[in-house]
Design a protein that fits this description.
Elements lengths: L24 H20 L18 E2 L7 E2 L6 E5 L1 H6 L5 H5 L5 E5 L7 E5 L7 E5 L2 E3 L17 E8 L3 H4 L6 E7 L7 E9 L3 E12 L2 E15 L12 E15 L4 E16 L7 E17 L4 E17 L3 E18 L2 E16 L2 E18 L2 E12 L3 E15 L2 E12 L3 H5 L10 E14 L2 E19 L10 E21 L2 E10 L2 E2 L4 E2 L6 E11 L2 E10 L2 E2 L7 E2 L2 E13 L2 E8 L18 E8 L3
Parallel strand pairs: 6-9
Antiparallel strand pairs: 1-2, 3-8, 4-5, 6-7, 8-9, 10-11, 10-35, 11-12, 12-13, 13-14, 14-15, 15-16, 16-17, 17-18, 18-19, 19-20, 20-21, 21-22, 22-23, 23-24, 24-25, 25-26, 25-27, 26-29, 27-28, 29-30, 30-33, 31-32, 33-34, 34-35
């Protein structure tokens, strides 16, 4: 069993759910993708329509930092990456980070109810804990359930998201077995730019935001505040749970302050924090509450010592706190990270060397434990003519289980105009959490989960048109699952290294312009399987897709997107079926008066009833209208 759903809460206790003629080439593939959608929709017995903005191939000269932890042009990368820009995030309205990621190729999500409840993000079929998450370079993680608490990250204060698909432990160390998601808050630039926004929707939805950003005399600054709330809906579909509405409210703040000392040196501090209070149903009579608190604080100094040599020195701290009421449960993870990154750029060659230390601490009931990891990471990149090479090697030494070495090798070859083929191999690991080792269900002798990945890619791009196909196979061993009683103190069962999984699939993505419409879409065919019993991994579909269209007409920017998924299973035995579904969403945006923008959005237009976790309802049709004043 690769991933299990035990119950309702984002707790680490085993009885609870883990937070888990000549054809125009791009148009041809866009039509090929579109032609696959009706088959998926038929299996889902749902409806079809277009999907969301995701800048796959939108601007190949755009700079990214997530692939190798240094700034690089997107066009130079062998890695399989996507970028979610500020406009896409703005159009989402009061949604979550997971809602936006669900429109990116290679990603599915599941949620135990409405906003603020346990959310899992599956990248290329990997469990949620196998995606490393960073906020402005600050690592987010939980040492109880494992993985980031997606429901506590405030979407409204995010400016950009970079998504790296495929293992990246040779760059980031433990956890990046499925990929990496890096979230960026806004950076100030130019004259002071204040903003104020209000939004209203059905089910008592209300949002309020305010902030200011700018730069002057070497300083740049950005500050944002957000309040979101909704009356929600009854999250459970079973008679044994409280039938009340499960409401949600969140307060969040982001801040960034930078100082450019001179052309060579820059200091910067970043902060993102949120406090979430949401309802969930555990019993028939009580109004159960879950409290999520998080913050990500980063301090860094970037220096360009010579034309060829630069460094980055960073200290960061994050917290993941979870509590339930009235039933008493608390878990608190604190993470400290120290990074010294060195980069040499010598013509077509790029060399990197990083020293990193990570300290984890967990307080959970009777557990009060900590550990640390020290690491050395080396990288080499070559970009010359049609050839691109990227090599990475990393050694992590853990205070608990010892050392682990990971590596990756990637090669790209531009074999024809606008065409490029890529090949990548790599290894990755995830250290067991402190809860898995030291709780009453734990085993201190647990070993790291490991994976070996290989993938092939083919890409075509010309202007705004693009096509990509990526085939991958990721073999995971030493999986930590909740198993039968034995090595721990609990009679209900223990964590153990007893699992194996094979994550394989093909991702197709394309963008093109057809008349006045910008089209984009993707289809994923995957087979995430538990090789111990040859069953599909829980809550992951073998086929899913997105399709989207955007246009500008009558002074409005119009967008429509479709998400469709085949059936999934809610349990490891593949006996509880979650039916397929298709969702159709619409949004429109315009400037109603000078400096005042209006956005309107309808999610789940057809009011589709579906589940991503068994016995947990999902939101029906929702309507949202927001206005924002932002003088230019």
């Amino acid at each position: 069993m690769f991933s299990s759903a035990f119950s309702t809460r984002r707790c680490a206790r085993p009885a609870l759910a883990p937070r888990s003629g000549t054809l125009h080439t791009p148009r041809f593939f866009a039509l090929a993708i579109a032609s696959a959608l009706p088959l998926l929709a038929l299996q889902a017995q749902a409806q079809q329509a277009p999907a969301a903005q995701e800048t796959e191939g939108k601007n190949l000269q755009e700079m990214v930092v997530t692939a190798n932890r240094i700034e690089q042009p997107l066009s130079d990368l062998v890695a399989d990456m996507s970028i979610i820009d500020a406009q896409t995030i703005e159009r989402q309205g009061p949604g979550s980070v997971a809602d936006v990621l669900a429109r990116v190729p290679g990603i599915q999500i599941s949620r135990n109810g409405g906003p603020g409840t346990t959310t899992s993000v599956f990248m290329r079929g990997a469990d949620s804990r196998f995606t490393a998450v960073y906020v402005d370079g600050v690592r987010m993680d939980s040492q109880s359930t494992g993985g980031a608490s997606w429901q506590s990250i405030p979407l409204a204060l995010i400016d950009r998201i970079e998504v790296l698909r495929g293992p990246a432990a040779a760059v980031y160390g433990s956890d990046a077995m499925g990929g990496v998601v890096q979230i960026f808050t806004k950076k100030g630039e130019g004259v002071p730019q204040p903003y104020v926004g209000l939004g209203f929707g059905n089910r008592g939805t209300f949002t309020a935001e305010a902030g200011i950003s700018g730069s002057a005399e070497g300083w740049d600054y950005a500050l944002g505040l957000n309040r979101s709330q909704t009356d929600g809906f009854n999250a459970r579909t079973v008679a044994t749970a409280n039938p009340d509405k499960d409401d949600y409210r969140s307060n969040a703040v982001s801040g960034r302050l930078g100082y450019q000392i001179n052309r060579q040196h820059r200091l910067e501090a970043t902060l993102l924090a949120s406090d979430v209070n949401s309802g969930y149903d555990s019993s028939l009579t009580e109004d159960d509450r879950s409290l999520n608190k998080m913050y990500a604080l980063g301090l860094n100094w970037q220096a360009q010592w010579t034309e060829h040599y630069s460094t980055k020195l960073q200290f960061s701290q994050s917290r993941d706190y979870y509590e339930t009421r009235p039933s008493p449960y608390q878990t608190d993870t604190r993470l400290h990270n120290y990074l010294f990154q060195n980069t040499w750029r010598l013509g077509v060659h790029t060399l990197t060397a990083a020293l990193e230390r990570r300290d984890d601490a967990l307080t959970n009931g009777g557990i009060d434990r900590d550990r640390h990891q020290n690491a050395l990471a080396l990288g080499y990149g070559l970009n010359t003519g049609p050839h691109t090479v990227q090599l990475n090697l990393r050694r992590d030494d853990d205070s608990e289980f010892g050392g682990k070495t990971t590596g990756s090798a990637a090669y790209g070859y531009a074999f024809a105009t606008n065409w490029r083929a890529t090949a990548t191999v790599g290894t990755a690991f995830r250290a067991p959490t402190l809860y898995q080792r030291f709780s009453e269900y734990g085993d201190a002798s647990l070993q790291p989960e490991k994976s070996r990945n290989a993938e092939l890619g083919l890409r075509w791009a010309q202007g705004a048109d693009s096509f990509s196909a990526t085939a991958y196979r990721n073999r995971v061993t030493n999986l930590i699952n909740f198993s039968s009683p034995g090595s721990c103190d609990s009679e209900f069962g223990c964590y153990a290294n007893v699992g194996k999984a094979r994550l394989e699939g093909i991702t197709l993505a394309a963008t093109t312009k057809l008349g006045a419409f910008n089209l984009h879409g993707s289809v994923d065919f995957q087979n995430p399987r538990d090789t111990e019993n040859d069953k599909l991994l829980a809550r992951r579909a073998k086929r899913y897709a997105t399709l989207g269209a955007e246009t500008r007409a009558a002074g409005w920017t119009w967008a429509a997107d479709l998400q469709t998924s085949a059936k999934r299973f809610d349990n490891a035995a593949n006996t509880n079926v979650l039916g397929g579904y298709t969702l159709f969403n619409l949004s429109a945006q315009t400037e109603i008066v000078k400096d005042v923008n209006l956005i309107a959005r309808i999610n789940n237009l057809a009011d589709k009833r579906y589940q991503t976790a068994r016995t947990y309802a999902t939101e029906g049709r929702s309507v949202y209208v927001g206005v924002k004043w932002m003088p230019r």
